[in-house]
Description:
By secondary structure, this protein is an alpha+beta fold. It has one domain: Alpha-Beta Plaits. It contains two helices and four strands. Strands 2-3-1-4 form a four-stranded antiparallel beta sheet, with helices on one face. The protein is globular, with a radius of gyration of 11 Å. The N and C termini lie far apart (24 Å). The relative contact order is 0.30. Residues 5-68 form the HMA domain. Pfam families: HMA.
Amino acid sequence: MENTRQYRLKVPGIHCSGCIRTVEAALKRVPGTVRARVDYLRKEATVAGEAPLQAWLDELQAVGYPAQAIPEEAR
């Protein structure tokens, strides 16, 4: 995939393994997603694919997990 981008998202609402499954499933539902992974301890998700960042943020909001992108300079 030529336009694959990777983002780290802060997802403060992650509290349990059920949250992890819900967040990963929501991110993977977005067309163009190649990979989605959640880090429970950091309450972050890493997502990669061709979808626009806002599509992933909107999907997380829709399932009750508001998130924000972690700026590259903070990585």
